[in-house]
Fold these 3 entries.
Entry 1:
Amino acid sequence: MNITIVGPGAIGSLWAIKLLQAGHNVSLWSRTTYNSIDLSLDGQASLSFSNNNIEKLSASDLVIVTVKAWQVEEATTPLLQYLDPDTILMFMHNGMGAVDEIATQIDAHPIVLATTTQAAFKPDRNSVSHTGAGQTQLGAFNQAGKKCTFLVDVLNHALPNVSWNPEIHTALWTKLAINCAINPLTGLEQIKNGELSEPRFGNTLTAIIEELTQVMQAEGISCSFDELETNVNKVIQATAKNNSSMKQDMFYQRRTEIDFITGFLIETAHKHQIDVPVNQTLLTQVKEQESSWKKQD
Ligand SMILES: NC(=O)c1ccc[n+]([C@@H]2O[C@H](COP(=O)([O-])OP(=O)(O)OC[C@H]3O[C@@H](n4cnc5c(N)ncnc54)[C@H](OP(=O)(O)O)[C@@H]3O)[C@@H](O)[C@H]2O)c1
């Protein structure tokens, strides 16, 4: 397939290399002005990708957008003029609501949402480390996206495990719930995920999960407090030594994805007239820190 990766950061570079190695024609679309970008995975020989090539973009069968949630609109909309309506758009980021914001502009395309637990890190512009193997779930955002189940084979061949989830909305909410529980607290406290199992966080985590359960149930997502709590605790244990992305973003004073994680939860809660004071406080605290830094792009 002809594939363009928009936003070749950590996760985008990982997929770019894996899809190229699987035999696809892969090009990049970045914020840089280079015509080509070399990328090396885990110290292997560098691979060269063309960058910001409009012809290759226009010829794409699949465009995978791997920017952060708050960058989706700015990264995607200028490219639409070059794309055929048949080009599949796949969005792979944490958080929810970013694709909804541009839904009317992109609805002519088949749209696929992806959520992944693969982990990657980019120590410098030309290197990427695959720091953790994980699962990737794909699902349709619109009617035309439902015809894209074949993408499971394409992606799975490049970087397993990939599966199709007809209930991707539920999978995204489940991931959002885990992010709401882990990210703001680890960011504000500057602690590793595992430290959340300390008793001092017990009440706050319980309150976050209670609020999440109410909102998710109001959204029609089948879940219980016990299920969510078990899930959150499992992830805290399994990723005990990890630094959450929000912890890292706040450490480096980079804009976080809080608006599309806790912010999305709060927006949905308001829609259902549900009070979520604990999540609201976390959002306010993270936003206060963000606004105390110099303006980020
Ligand atoms: N990294 C992981 O292990 C991981 C795992 C699971 C999910 N995720 C999620 O995946 C998403 C991406 O994460 P990441 O860690 O890969 O972030 P990242 O390293 O910051 O990558 C984002 C990339 O998008 C580029 N970009 C931003 N705006 C753009 C634009 N307008 N046009 C083209 N490119 C643009 C950025 O360019 P600059 O370099 O110029 O900033 C950067 O290279 C996030 O939602 C994250 O939460 C990440």
Entry 2:
Amino acid sequence: MKLKWCDEIFFSLWFLQSLCLQEKVILFKLILDFEGIKSKFSLRTADEPDDDICYLVPGQEDTVARCNFNHTSKTFVVIHGWTVTGMYESWVPKLVDALYKREPDSNVVVVDWLSRAQQHYPVSAAYTKLVGKDVAIFIDWMEEQFNYPLDNLHLLGYSLGAHAAGIAGSLTKKKINRITGLDPAGPNFEYAEATTRLSPDDADFVDVLHTYTRGSPDRSIGIQKPVGHIDIYPNGGGFQPGCNLGEALRLIAEKGLADVDQLVKCSHERSIHLFIDSLLYEDKPSLAYRCNTKETFEKGLCLSCRKNRCNNLGYTVNKVRAKRNSKMYLKTRSQMPYKVFHYQVKVHFFGKVNVTKTNQPFLVSLYGTADESKNIALILPEISTNKTYSSLVYTEINIGDLLMVTLQWEKESIFSWSDWWTSYAFDIQRVRVKAGETQKKMVFCSRDGISHLTKGKEAVVFVKCAAKPNNTDTGQDLKERSAHEFSEE
Ligand SMILES: *[C@@H]1O[C@H](CO)[C@@H](O)[C@H](O)[C@H]1NC(C)=O
Ligand SMILES: *[C@@H]1O[C@H](CO)[C@@H](O)[C@H](O)[C@H]1NC(C)=O
Ligand SMILES: *[C@@H]1O[C@H](CO)[C@@H](O)[C@H](O)[C@H]1NC(C)=O
Ligand SMILES: *[C@@H]1O[C@H](CO)[C@@H](O)[C@H](O)[C@H]1NC(C)=O
């Protein structure tokens, strides 16, 4: 088990701050004290994505021309979240830059609410109402004064900024085209009414990435419940690959301690970098799949694209508005480009004697027309004689069309006496594979009719089944049981 003490400390700090300032009286006074502070709207440029050069000031029409606002282009409005330092975090220029790379003619506006965002967390959380109101006033002004169409408007809010975006969307006179919530903040919002947080009513289309939803709902940094039309939970939404302690230490060794606060928020901020990935790597879009639970997704049972069950993560999402909000899942790499290829692998374990084993380690290798991905580790929670098991296997390598699969049953790392004198084996006829990204279903057969997969022995090979003149696929087949393990969602 990996000790994620960095996260734990971060949780604790955040939480303690919340506890210190629960008293509504204090909260109310502070809000009054800061009444005068208004959000600022900085129109950034592609040349200087990290500088506030020109502000669009609501009520001052000349600022719009002075800042070279393009009235016929799209506008992105970026809203930051809570900040410890009172400064923009390093992702801001990265996101601005990526937006301009993808949409060179667009206007990228960064909302500066830093002074309100550096208060104690519950205070800043309460300020999202005022920030949302500021943004709504700005948008209504652009719409009324310049006839700027809100169809061209896309709000992107991170953490507390996601809720500010939602409030803005609920207050504008006309509906905003799209709001993207990047790991919307959880504390103080998980159980809040829809009107005070991001919700599907806030724009024509609301898409949300959930990347740091660990622990019980009241302690989770990212909101756990779905709050958009589409809610994507990369890697289950709890914790992101590459954000563990070992990785953090490696980064500190490489880049020094300066970025430590970035490291602690690694999973939270991953939502932004996944969106940036979707802007920059147009040719490597990550697909997410609708699924009822992450456990079902882990079994590979949700890799379907029928009836909008799959969608692109990020910028090019298809604007599907399901009646009930739907959770979607995918796996990613630990670095950009994040895309991986998902496969469902289904195997029926034949045997003469009844055997049940739990938590068994396997290695799967996939060989394709373009490349191969060897020894993908896989743990099956349970295997039993004459049952079918389905599992999710994923690889960052684009292997092309799958040609061959090998399967190896490893010994557990812990020495076991029973393993020492018993040789466990199952007979396998075929391996069924479904590729999520291509939606292709394939069946791979043992070259000998039946292969013996023995624990601790070499891998067994499955190749594309030979085409037979007669369809013997069902007739001569041994009966494959436990149909429930077999069916897709
Ligand atoms: C404004 O954007 C449009 C595309 O939306 C582009 O054709 C035009 O050149 C831009 N105008 C200026 C002044 O950059
Ligand atoms: C498993 O099924 C096969 C064929 O359907 C049968 O021959 C075998 O006896 C079964 N094994 C057990 C342990 O019931
Ligand atoms: C294996 O177990 C199943 C039920 O779990 C039983 O029907 C079958 O007879 C058993 N087979 C053997 C060979 O013990
Ligand atoms: C299938 O095999 C039978 C004999 O086993 C033969 O009579 C029949 O024509 C075959 N059908 C096809 C479609 O090849």
Entry 3:
Amino acid sequence: MPQNETPRNETPRNETSRNEIEIRGLRKSFGDNEVLRGIDLEVARGEVVCVIGPSGSGKSTLLRCVNLLEEPSAGQVFVGGTEVTDLDVDIDAVRRRIGMVFQQFNLFPHITVTENLVLPQRRVLRRDKVKAAAVARENLDRVGLAEKADAYPAQLSGGQQQRVAIARALAMGPEVMLFDEPTSALDPELVGDVLAVMRVLAGEGMTMMVVTHEMSFAREVADRVVFMDGGVIVEQGPAEQVVGAPREERTRNFLNRILDPAAEARPTSHLPPGDQPG
Ligand SMILES: Nc1ncnc2c1ncn2[C@@H]1O[C@H](COP(=O)(O)OP(=O)(O)OP(=O)(O)O)[C@@H](O)[C@H]1O
Ligand SMILES: [Mg+2]
């Protein structure tokens, strides 16, 4: 696809690494439960990586370790060349570089859409009112919601609320965007508008890690797909390989389940050996 051919990763920069995100030997336990068991992953500047895998495989925990919403038990995470797992790091400064969008939009219900975008800019970036309002307008426009600037969140559809949440993250000027199942809470007819915004961001060269079950999005937009299971990366590669022709049995089983949930209920003896689900 065209965005793979453009030299998005060759923009000049000061840092030594071409990777926007580097994860080395990352482990995370909750009590006795080790949910990340040695993750090594690099995301180049401008790259879009989709993370897929079964429930409980550690996808959200992985994203949350990147912006330190969870403290890793072992290993290192670098964002933009800065080790965020360094004990002396300024966590707030790190978080300012990383935008995160969750399944739940978490907008403040009692203030307008614009105010939802202005507030974090004022509090975290100490921007003045005029500048913050201008940046809010610009980013609402970016997600196609300029006309909803004065609406309250409850007056918007779920898809519109999620686009506001994306605009709120973008208004902070992040270098990296993390998305954790951004369309999973939406009615199917609202998913497309949110994915369209993400597609535009990807096209603009934003570095993105996206946990998603939207395989068509992964195939179209992701530079790389990572399949996780049981706290490890089982396989990764271009979408056409990982989704289209997975090498690992576990990946095949997972994809069979999500691409055709009814398949498990059907007898499988007529399928060729490579296509056996379960
Ligand atoms: N704060 C926490 N305290 C204790 N256990 C946790 C916590 N957060 C996650 N876990 C456990 O870690 C494991 C991985 O959870 P995680 O949310 O990362 O999985 P996931 O791949 O995102 O799953 P899903 O697809 O359901 O969102 C699960 O067993 C979960 O119960
Ligand atoms: Mg999750």
